[in-house]
Design a protein that fits this description.
Blueprint (H helix, E strand, L loop, with lengths): L6 H11 L6 H71 L6 H12 L5 E9 L5 E13 L1 H11 L6 E10 L7 E12 L4
Antiparallel strand pairs: 1-2, 2-4, 3-4
């Protein structure tokens, strides 16, 4: 392969561009411009892609670290739920076999003196893939006092019976001052029979 960059070829190229015809100041300016363009070329085509790939890699590492922290947090949350599920199952085994959420709520409503204030009560069961099946009751109470509502909620929230209020909406009763209307969702769990 021929070597095009011999000193004779470079000398001929310099003569063709008229380098010797330029005075010293013009040669310095043109030489500085050539060096500047060469430096810009090196920065743009060599260092810039390296820096960009390093920045992308650093961003990717930070993103992966955040994802790892989230996975670890979810793992801890899952373990806590597993422990809680086991605790719930133990309490459910101690609950009487004849327990039903509907009858438990009626009993608590009678004890709180609000059974006649129940506008509706709708039981339902939620399908689940896990070992526990959720049962819930939606009910509406009308024209009850705050004291009666509090007494009912105290009675219906039961740690030992695994019954809790999952949602409640309270409004003032429009006709009589000092009375409330409440829509309550109460849930419990039961152990699903394996098939």
């Amino acid at each position: 392969m021929k070597n095009y960059f011999t000193s004779a070829n470079i000398q001929t190229l310099i003569n063709k561009i008229g380098w010797k015809n330029l005075d010293k100041r013009e040669q310095i300016m043109v030489g500085g411009l050539i060096i500047f363009l060469l430096i810009m070329f090196i920065i743009y085509f060599i260092f810039s892609p390296l820096l960009n790939s390093r920045q992308r890699l650093q961003k990717s590492i930070v993103k992966k670290q955040i994802e790892l922290q989230e996975v670890q947090r979810l793992g801890k949350e899952y373990q806590a739920l597993q422990l809680q599920s086991g605790d719930i199952q133990e309490r459910l085994k101690k609950r009487p076999a004849s327990f039903t959420l509907f009858s438990f709520i009626e009993k608590q409503a009678t004890a709180a003196g609000i059974k006649e204030k129940i506008n509706y009560i709708k039981p339902s069961t939620v399908a689940s893939d896990g070992p526990l099946r959720e049962s819930r009751v939606d009910m509406k109470l009308q024209q009850i006092s705050l004291e009666n509502l509090v007494n009912f909620l105290k009675g219906v929230e039961s740690f030992t019976q695994v019954v809790s209020v999952s949602r409640i909406s309270i409004q003032e009763h429009g006709k009589e001052e000092g009375y409330l209307n409440a829509v309550i969702q109460i849930v419990t769990f039961s152990i699903q029979e394996t098939q």
